Amino acid sequence: MHKSNIIGVLFLVFSMLASMVTASQDSERDPIDLAKAISITFEKVAEKISPSLVTIQSKKEVQVKRGDSFRPRDINLGLGSGLIITQDGHIVTNAHVVDQADDVAVSLSDGTTIVAEIIGADPKTDIALLKVNQKDFVPASLGDSDQLRVGQFVIAAGNPFGLSASITSGIVSAIGRSNVGITDYENFIQTDASINQGNSGGPLVNLDGDVIGINTAMLGRNGNIGIGFAIPINLVKDIVNDLTDDGEVTRGFLGVRISELNNNFSNDLKIKYGIFVSTVYKDSPASSAGIQPRDVITHLNGIPAKELSKFRFDVASFLPGEEVILTILREGSRMDIKVELGSL
Asked: Has 126 been annotated as catalytic?
């Protein structure tokens, strides 16, 4: 055998032996030590995220009739959580936390309470951006939600029922969850980490302490049942950028009324999925591109169009003026149509 081949074989053998020794050592580790190591990880995450957590209190002024006259009175709309994302005081939370609020106050991790301004809100994704006139904050580290995998450990942080800096742990139960009925555009992270009343607007964090989502809702009217939802942080970043620019969010617009194919129609067309176009609005981007009623959209830029909510979400994710390719089925013929999206 050639000398270089012998060296290669020896290296492979030694590598395998080293791996076996490491595996053996891991299997012999005290379970208590392993549990302590996991506990230390959670402690470090809590220490990292806590300075960036805030409690949000919103109030609305209403006119109350007393005798023959009306007098202004402040009513509390409720409590929520928020997350500091810049050193100069930008805070992200849920839109429903500050909806209809005239006054918003933010309680910091040191107990200080200061007035916040609403920069903008996007109810369609349930994201709002606030600003406080103070600097030198410790902003949260924002991660990459596209790297999430089902089964990963996560931590939900917030101020449920006004209990500041509370954390719960769980796993990622699902990603890309839609058809939940919470917002117009849904692409949720589902988790079994407890998300309770007051957690709305708080972060969902990975074991590196990086924020990968903003908690928005739980399923179940009588308390947490292990099904909570968070908005992916990559979507939040896009919304925040728009709100920072002018307080509004712009989305791609196609200009059609659509629905998912029912089983009978899909069987007749001999296709497994697609988005049925029932109406094309006059002078819309779809109309200008030549989309017609009764067309079936099967792909968007080569990606199968299987779910109505995801298709709407994907179209809205493009900027106005961008071009997309729709693959459609029309009277048995398949064709690609280029559409320049409008503004929604």
From this structure: yes
